[in-house]
Amino acid sequence: MALALKLDAIEDLPRTPASDVKKLGWRGVMKTVGRKGRVVVTNHNEPEAVILSAEDYGAIMRALHEASARNDEALDTLRHRFDERLASLQVADAGSRLRGVMRSPARLGGKVKVGASH
User: Fold this and answer.
1) Cα 75 from Cα 44, distance rounded (Å)
2) Which overall architecture, per CATH, does domain 10-52 show?
3) Does the N-terminal or the C-terminal CB of the chain have fewer CB atoms within 10 Å?
């Protein structure tokens, strides 16, 4: 069963002071984690650590891995498109074609010209 990943801001997580961790012990802290899912341990009211379940940690790591894979895929697609465009500049007549385009004035007729071609 997939765990729904809900990432709350650290300010919105339940808090427990470090003194309670010492007083209640590990078992007490893990009861809070079991009830609330995550807990921020504070020292002088400043966040010092976040304790979460192994299940939550696994879900976060899976989400990070999936996001990284999507980014890699998008980068590969972009790289492929760039390489295709760069290859068009490697053909024998690329220089003369580019000079021809640069010499001729653009005729837009009052409209914006948009396109993906060169």
Assistant:
1) 44
2) 3-Layer(aba) Sandwich (3.40)
3) N
- Gap between the Cα atoms of 24 and 16, Å rounded: 10
Query: How confident is the model over 7-35, as a mean pLDDT?
Result: 86
CB-based contact 21:41 (threshold 8 Å)? yes
Structure tokens that stand for 105 in this block: 């004035």
Asked if residue 15 lies in contact with residue 8, where contact means CB atoms within 8 angstroms, the answer is no
**Domain limits, the chain:** 10-52, 53-88
Segment 87-97 shows an average pLDDT of: 86
| pLDDT at residue 36 is higher than 90 | no
Tell me, what DSSP letter sits at residue 4? P
User: Residues 6 or more apart from 19 whose CB is under 8 A from it?
Assistant: none
Cβ 68 vs Cβ 75: under 8 Å? no
Residues 6+ apart with CB under 8 A from 33: 39, 51, 52, 53
